[in-house]
Amino acid sequence: MRQPGSADLSGICGFDGFIDTFIRLEQPASMAEFGPKVTAAAGIAASYSVRHLRDKFGGNGPLYAAGLNDIHEGRIEITYIGAMGREEILPIYREALESKTYKLYSLADPAHSDCLEFTDGKVMLCDLGACAEITLERLLEVVGEAALGEVLASADFIAAVNWGKLVNVGSIWTYLAELSKALGRPAKQVHCFMDLAEFEGRAAADVEELIESMPGITAQFQTMLSFNLKEAWQMGTFFGEDFTGRKDADSVAALASFLWERIGVDRIIIHPNDGAACASERGVVYVPGPFCKEPLISTGAGDNFGAACLAAALHGLDDVGIILAGNLASGHFVRSGRSASFQTMLEMTDAWASGTLSERL
User: Which residues contact residue 76 at a Cβ distance below 8 angstroms, ignoring those fewer than 6 apart?
Assistant: First the structure.
């Protein structure tokens, strides 16, 4: 792991962990073709040709932490807290994260996802049993308040992702804000990036509790709450407004503004596949992205998007710069399977502007 004092920025990422098995559908290759075929086979049976690509460390938090490290080319100190093995951290996580983090704490075994990848999206089949073990009580048992306080005393950021699958993580989010305040950290000194990650399985009461917790977290932290487009549609429906199916830039921007007016955070970010919107007290902006027609990989694109948004905020960029960075990082990832750095994002910007950006990097 990286030695202390080797970076100017430091903070916490968490709190999940998955082992992802990647499966590429060969025929049919698209979700649009696959769905009707499955429907037609209901009550009978069906068989489809696939390629098992690999097993990989996963989870929104680990992918986010790895991306955030790579964006800074290692010049950032990340404490990762998540689900990487109950008794000891599994080798797949040590190999993936030890060189990219300052310290690892594991609270539980990882969950497991089979990621069915199509040319136009993905389907995640998730065994989420271990996710319920991510609790505030377990956090304090494994890490301890003293060690958490030591990290928070100098932290520049917190990235708290995958609320949708971590059914008990809300109390951790609130606790970190309260502990930061108790340590005497000035309000708005720490950037906090949050995403919900496919929360349609959560009860309305859970969503209501989450919304009620946001003003308290925002009072202490500089907050960003990020959604993919489907998640944003779901949140819009929760507040009684149906944006479902509206993918044009104006509608996405309007939805970002709608949610910002109703959720107590500093920024609302929405990222479709071809751009992103950000709403804040400065208004709402939409920035198109370098769309990739046939992504090499899609799982992890949203996490790299979010890591770049946080990185841009940490370096003082405005709302446009934040979501432009997110667009570039996700665009780089889907073309290459690798996380971007600031330098590669700049190079990608030049290629995009000149019309020479290819489908593979």
Answer: 7, 8, 9, 10, 68, 69
Q: How many CA atoms lie within 13 A of 16 on its CB side?
A: 35
Q: What are phi and psi of 225, to 5 degrees?
A: -115, 120
At 185, is the secondary structure helix, strand, or coil?
coil
| Helix extents (H) in 183-280 | 204-220, 229-238, 249-260
Q: 145-195 pLDDT, tens per residue?
A: 999 999 999 999 999 999 999 999 999 999 999 999 999 999 999 999 999
Q: How far apart (Å, rounded) are the C-alpha atoms in residues 125 and 332?
A: 25
pLDDT tens, residue by residue, 225-279: 999 999 999 999 999 999 999 999 999 999 999 999 999 999 999 999 999 999 9
Residue 283's identity, in one-letter code, is G
Angle at the Cα of 306 (from 55 to 300), degrees rounded to 5? 15
pLDDT at residue number 55 = 86
Contact 237, 194 (CB under 8 A): no
**How many CB atoms within 10 Å of residue 78?**
26
Distances (CA, A) of 67 to 80, 102, 338: 13, 14, 9
Residue 78: predicted pLDDT = 98
Which amino acid does the sequence have at 299? T
**Mean pLDDT throughout 31-40?**
93
- The SS3 call for residue 155 is coil
**Assigned CATH topology for domain 10-36+49-353:** UDP-N-acetylmuramoyl-L-alanine:D-glutamate ligase (3.40.1190)
The whole-angstrom separation of Cα 280 and Cα 359 is: 33
The alpha carbons of the chain give a radius of gyration, in whole angstroms, of: 20
246-257 pLDDT per residue, tens: 999 999 999 999
